[in-house]
């Protein structure tokens, strides 16, 4: 399986994340990918290549152009306004306020385009986000050209980013761009399976009213964890998209027997629908020792999950999402890939 990876992810490394009322070193940090790369090498995944330059056309077509311009220019505007630190949203539109009027002031704009304040923007964030989606695009082209699978080792991750909001460590939704590119290259039915511990709210939102991209997400129940305000089982899609969105929220302490039953159900729905290609939002924060999650998966469970996904026999692009037990992120990620290959 070819792996696409760009060193430019290192350009995004905020000094601080707002967590528990304190500024801490962000859980989403560059070393995550070092552990994954080391493990890939150790397990003989040696075909690791840098992606070609990002192709902006499919990104601007899918996402809000104003949002993309904001991401590109936010740092310069922030500095020009005399702000001393990294970009952190302090004021967001809440109940009773205007949701559709974009402020002129950069502090206000940040609030408009952000949904969660833990995520900081730095000088290198835009370039890193572009390098991340470039890996996803290269993986998509590789599979569209005939490979049975590819792994986009994306960082920053993407599945929490909507068409016009960042948060949850995500800026550009790599999996959504990948799915759209499969549609553009001729696939009529594209499935996105999100196994990250957190709900893939951004991906759900982008495809919520569409019947050509099916979305299924296994995640911590929103009444108990981020992103808190979305991810319930009764969110099934809207309009033409009704019946093409499947959420599997699970409570604190969920282990592999329940989690894998949800996975099997999602797989059955994707197969019954007749998906032609699959995009997997591959987070490994369902692991038992993950510092910001509450499922109980063991490392071997990730191998088994990969095997179940592989049995679908669909052309598949894996996009890296979360996973924060850094010393085990490599093992658990590669376990999924090995299980998939094994099937
Ligand atoms: Zn996650």
From TrEMBL:
UniProt GO BP: epigenetic regulation of gene expression
GO MF annotation: an example: metal ion binding
Alphabetical list of Gene3D superfamilies matching this protein: Histone deacetylase domain (3.40.800.20)
InterPro entries in alphabetical order: HDACs, His_deacetylse_dom, His_deacetylse_dom_sf, Ureohydrolase_dom_sf
Presence of keyword Metal-binding: yes
The keyword 4Fe-4S is annotated on this UniProt entry: no
Keywords, sorted A to Z: Hydrolase, Metal-binding, Zinc
Domain Histone deacetylase: 28-337
Named cofactor requirement(s): Zn(2+)
Pfam families assigned to the protein according to its UniProt record, in alphabetical order: Hist_deacetyl
Cross-referenced PANTHER family: HISTONE DEACETYLASE 8, HISTONE DEACETYLASE HDAC1-RELATED
Family according to the record: Belongs to the histone deacetylase family.
This protein's name: Acetylpolyamine aminohydrolase
């Amino acid at each position: 399986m070819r792996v696409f990876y760009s060193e430019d992810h290192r350009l995004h490394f905020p000094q601080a994340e707002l967590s528990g009322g304190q500024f801490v070193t962000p859980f989403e940090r560059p070393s995550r990918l070092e552990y994954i790369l080391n493990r890939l090498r150790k397990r003989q995944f040696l075909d690791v290549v840098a992606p070609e330059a990002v192709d902006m056309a499919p990104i601007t077509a899918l996402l809000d152009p104003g949002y993309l311009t904001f991401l590109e220019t936010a740092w310069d505007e922030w500095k020009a306004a005399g702000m001393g630190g990294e970009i952190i949203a302090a004021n967001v539109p809440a109940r009773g306020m205007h949701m559709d009027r974009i402020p002129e002031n950069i502090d206000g704009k940040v609030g408009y385009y952000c949904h969660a304040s833990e995520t900081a923007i730095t000088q290198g964030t835009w370039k890193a986000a572009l390098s991340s989606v470039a890996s996803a695009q290269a993986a998509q082209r590789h599979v569209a050209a005939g490979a049975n699978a590819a792994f986009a080792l994306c960082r920053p991750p993407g599945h929490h980013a909507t068409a016009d909001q960042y948060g949850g460590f995500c800026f550009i939704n790599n999996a959504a761009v990948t799915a759209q590119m499969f549609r553009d290259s001729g696939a009529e039915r594209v499935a996105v399976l999100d196994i990250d511990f957190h709900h893939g709210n951004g991906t759900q939102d982008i495809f919520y009213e569409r019947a050509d991209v099916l979305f299924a997400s296994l995640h911590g129940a929103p009444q108990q964890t981020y992103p808190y305000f979305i991810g319930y089982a009764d969110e099934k899609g809207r309009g033409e998209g009704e019946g093409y969105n499947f959420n599997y929220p699970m409570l604190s302490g969920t282990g592999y027997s329940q989690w894998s039953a949800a996975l099997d159900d999602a797989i059955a729905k994707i197969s019954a629908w007749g998906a032609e290609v699959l995009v997997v939002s591959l987070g490994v924060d369902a692991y038992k020792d993950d510092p910001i999650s509450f499922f109980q998966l063991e490392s071997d469970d990730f191998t088994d999950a990969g095997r179940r996904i592989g049995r679908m026999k669909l052309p598949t692009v894996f996009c890296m999402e979360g996973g924060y037990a850094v010393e085990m992120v490599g093992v658990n990620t590669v376990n999924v890939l090995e299980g998939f290959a094994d099937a």
